[in-house]
């Protein structure tokens, strides 16, 4: 029996948090996306996790095929072994990051269900910001002058010692 994958963990967390099967939640996230923004975020992250989880499985199978017992890889296959191992590590790291993002969305949902509306909105925004789905704020260009009200009065030049 294979080990639990990151996708299985994420699916379990989502199903537990929303108390419905993942198939029902997928339909809800698509048909009524504005009803539950946290569900929509969790489902988007789960979709990315499914892709990453599949890539990890492919890299792991390739690595197992190249390093199976009794098989002596040719010199030219060493680069493929190293590349597959590196790709597997990257895919596993991405999977872990996706699971962590889903965990944060679930935590925000739990916090919003117990708190009043004010803090819930800020927790939801914080969860979306941590998941990387939030738009970036514009950055002020350094060449623009600072308004006088912000800069304040300048000290008078005095003697230097």
Can you walk me through this structure?
The protein is 68% helix and 0% strand. The radius of gyration is 25 Å and the shape is flat. The mean pLDDT is 81. By secondary structure, it is mostly helical.
Report on the biggest sheet.
none
Q: What is the β-strand count?
A: 0
Outline type? flat
Fraction in helix = 55-70%
Range of strand content: under 5%
Oligomer: single chain
Tally the helices: what do you get?
6
Residue-averaged pLDDT, rounded? Answer: 81
Which features would summarize this protein structure in a list?
161 residues, mainly alpha, flat
How would you concisely characterize the structure shown here?
The chain is mainly α and 161 residues long. Helices cover 68% and strands 0% of the residues.
Layout: helices, strands, pairs:
Layout: H1 6-18, H2 22-31, H3 37-66, H4 78-114, H5 117-131, H6 148-151
């Amino acid at each position: 029996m294979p080990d639990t994958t990151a996708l299985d963990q994420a699916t379990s967390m989502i199903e537990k948090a929303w108390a419905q099967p993942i198939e029902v939640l997928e339909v809800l996230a698509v048909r009524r996306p504005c009803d539950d923004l946290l569900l929509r975020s969790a489902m988007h992250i789960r979709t990315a996790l499914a892709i990453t989880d599949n890539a990890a499985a492919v890299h792991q199978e390739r690595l197992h095929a190249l390093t199976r017992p009794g098989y002596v890889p040719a010199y030219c296959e060493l680069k493929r072994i190293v590349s597959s191992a590196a790709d597997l590590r990257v895919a596993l790291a991405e999977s872990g990051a996706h699971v962590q993002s889903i965990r944060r969305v679930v935590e925000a949902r739990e916090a919003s269900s117990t708190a009043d509306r004010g803090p819930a909105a800020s927790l939801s925004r914080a969860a979306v910001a941590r998941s990387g789905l939030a738009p970036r704020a514009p950055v002020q260009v350094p060449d623009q002058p600072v308004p006088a009200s912000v800069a304040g009065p300048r000290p008078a030049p005095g003697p230097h010692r």
